[in-house]
Amino acid sequence: MRVSQQDKVSDFTNTAPEAWSDQQVRAFLRSLFDAAIASAQPSRILAKALPEKPKGRCIVVGAGKASAAMAAALEEAWPDVALEGVVVTRDGHAVPTQHITILEASHPVPDARSAQAGQAVLNAVSGLGEEDLVIALISGGGSSLLTLPVTGMTLEDKICIGQELLRSGATISEMNTVRRHLSAIKGGRLAQAAFPARVVTFVMSDVPGDDPAVIASGPTVSSPTTAEDALAILEKYDITVPESAKDYLRQQKKASEKQAATHPDNSVHMIATPYLALQAAARAAGKAGVRTLVLGDALEGESRVAGTVLSGIALSAKQHQVPVKGPAVLLSGGETTVTIQKGEKPGKGGRNTEFLLSCALALREAEGIWVLAGDSDGIDGTEDAAGALVTPTTLKRGQKSGLNAEKFLKNHDSYSYFEALKDLIIMGPTLVNVNDIRLIFIQ
Q1: Residue 354 belongs to what domain range?
Q2: Which residues are in the MOFRL domain (predicted)?
Q3: Is residue 10 in some structural domain?
Q4: Is residue 282 a contact partner of residue 441, using CB atoms and an 8 Å limit?
Q5: What is the rounded distance in angstroms from the CA atom of residue 372 to the CA atom of residue 440?
């Protein structure tokens, strides 16, 4: 079933969960996924968190997949404030605004527009005074969208390092540590450029732990890491690094310069997180009479390993009613990784579909277990699907179509497998980014 946002889903509320059909379970899981995403829509949450309106100018800057939607929500909440500024979002994620300029750039690999956006954001906050206010709208994806290499490095150097990190299996925290220390705008440098103006930052988290210094590499948040940490990560994953980057990090490692000044009343507000999204999904499940168990909002590790582990928990719940008795949903969030070995030529797929194909193999067509996993931003990696669905008949239907699931998993071609079964979830950009949502239903 190729599920789109416009599809009319089957009604699952007129039957007990123990008796739901395959179509009803699919509709139920999709409703939970949609509830999680809806809970993080900027139009619903940003207005409640806004500060007192400034006496001076109000400059709006931002970066991330949700930043344009956040900017539109801010304009709606403050129609009487003369807002100005610029935010950058991923291609296809722009929304109409009246006063705030929306730019688009490439993700997950930056391009020339990313560097242009970085310079435009820095220009927007220059020359401000003490009574001026900068509102920074930050969400996941900002690391590649807001790219400004340090002196001595080229954009091509940063692109090369970013691509190596994406293929290495490094965690998002590790990748953003390197990005921060090779950036002229991240790691709090944007807030430093805005001084003496006050900076109020609103963040939509897409990282395990919700550390604002990690989300979009923290443009307005001082870095808790060092250049030495960045060098250690590059060495750990055997990343090929241009000499310009090595030289810069070595110089920073030796340097003992003071951080540039920032306004003492700068603040950071977390308006949406993976945990809150999972709670919204859990509430929706409860209304349908289904028990829930949140396994965690910050799960990391290899996608295929996570698929095996979570499937084991689901099998225990089905067979032994431990750790929860069915009908129930196991919920989890976080961001797993897919490691591509050097020399491999991967097929199509993201971390969610790789997780799901691993689940299908581990569950081995166990009766009464369905799995939905997807990226809350609507795009799993670089593909057009948010994720996909695993059902008790996934492997059987694949075999009938001549598909070898183990081979597809080995080749990192999970998207193609679920595409052939018409089980991808296609919904387009959601303008939200609170990491991955994984739902396992035990009937």
Answers
A1: 17-38+274-442
A2: 329-436
A3: no
A4: no
A5: 6
